[in-house]
Design goal:
The complex is a heterodimer of chains A (191) and B (169). Chain A is an all-alpha fold and 191 residues long. Chain A is built from eight helices and no strands. Chain A starts with a helix and ends with a helix. Chain B is mainly α and 169 residues long. Chain B has one domain. The N and C termini of chain B lie close together (10 Å). The chains are: A mainly alpha (191), B mainly alpha (169).
């Protein structure tokens, strides 16, 4: 991100100099800074509402229920994972579903450490490790709180209208990624 | 569609009441945590929005888009969501900034705003995630993890675009 951000700014200024739009570009920088404050202010309320609701869900044991629902899926997706690994994987996936990114990552890293222990060929990522990483890079979120909040801040009349398409799209991308892992695993074994 | 969220909220509150939870206090704690998240997001949002506005005002964004759009035009992905699709796998904060910019520029309820929201919601910071997850393991060759993750992302972008464009969600 370090280089990308610098490149964004330097590239803008170079193009602006060539276009003769330097003034407009510098003003745009301050507009951007100003609008980030406006966005955060209108975004904070909705965001806090949802983190409040999700805290209620978390405390009333919804996590345990989701974990129970996930167990059969995990058994199928991670056939050779140890029980400890499966426990962390299930906590990682539950946190992802509830949108608790801060809780999901540590659990995922612990799960990876468990999978690493039982990896017979430690320099190469095992099937289970690939599966876990891919599930996290395509994760499914029950309520996309940040997006709802951002849409509200942008003056959307129906900020929640994108939830259903997001669910469907997430399921498709998870299915595609999981299928890709399974297919490539078979391919690698055959070679 | 408009029933999903109300039902979720009622379910959450009822299960909480059933398990004798101090619902109100729990909500307050959670809302406080939300403020921490917002404060955490803010600096990155400011940095990226500033850069995004500069890219747009200078005309640099049009240059970048005109390089990639021949490929994406084929599938029908709108050019306007390309900046988001490009930054999303690398930086979560960056993607938030670009999504904000896209929603403000093209409207949140239009086709472009909706497609951008769906892309944001159904994909992840793929490369960041790959780095973090493999960082503490002994793995040197991630093999199929990267292509599989990218396949997931591309599926997300294409399916999201098609859903909004064809089905008018």
């Amino acid at each position: 991100m370090n280089y990308i951000w610098c490149a964004m700014i330097i590239f803008s200024l170079i193009v602006a100099a060539l276009n003769g739009s330097l003034d407009a570009t510098i003003n745009a920088a301050f507009d951007g800074a100003k609008s980030s404050v406006e966005v955060v202010l209108s975004f904070a309320g909705v965001m806090c509402f949802w983190t409040g609701m999700l805290k209620i869900a978390e405390k009333s044991g919804i996590s345990e229920k989701i974990e129970k629902l996930l167990n059969p899926v995990i058994k199928r997706l991670f056939p050779s994972a140890s029980n400890d690994a499966k426990k962390y994987i299930s906590m990682n996936m539950t946190a992802n579903i509830l949108g608790m990114g801060n809780a999901a990552t540590p659990m995922g890293i612990k799960a990876m450490a468990e999978l690493d222990k039982s990896n017979k060929n430690p320099l190469r990522a095992s099937d289970d490790m690939c599966m876990l990483v891919v599930l996290n890079t395509t994760s499914f979120q029950l309520i996309p709180t940040t997006i709802i909040a951002l849409r509200t801040a942008a003056g959307s009349a129906e900020p929640m209208s994108v939830i259903a398409p997001i669910w469907i799209t997430s399921i498709c991308s998870i299915a595609a990624a999981v299928a890709a892992v399974k297919v490539m695993t078979k391919f690698f074994k055959r070679r | 569609m408009q029933y999903i969220i109300p039902i979720l909220i009622i379910l959450m509150i009822l299960t909480a009441l059933k398990s004798k939870l101090p619902v109100y206090d729990t909500f307050i704690t959670g809302a406080g945590d939300g403020m921490k998240i917002v404060l955490g997001i803010f600096p990155a949002l400011l940095a990226v929005l500033t850069a995004a506005y500069m890219l747009r005002a200078s005309g640099a964004i049009d240059l970048i888009i005109s390089f990639i759009s021949p490929i994406t035009d084929l599938i029908g992905i709108p050019r306007e969501v390309l900046p988001l699709a490009m930054i999303r796998p690398i930086s979560g904060g960056g993607a938030l900034g670009i999504l904000t910019d896209t929603l403000n520029t093209y409207g949140a309820d239009g086709e472009i705003g909706k497609i951008a929201s769906v892309i944001m919601g159904s994909t992840e910071t793929t490369f960041y995630c790959l780095c973090v997850y493999f960082a503490k393991t002994r793995v040197k060759h991630t093999l199929r993890a990267v292509p599989c993750a990218v396949i997931g992302d591309i599926t997300g972008i294409v399916v999201g675009t098609l859903l909004i464009k064809l089905l008018n969600f």
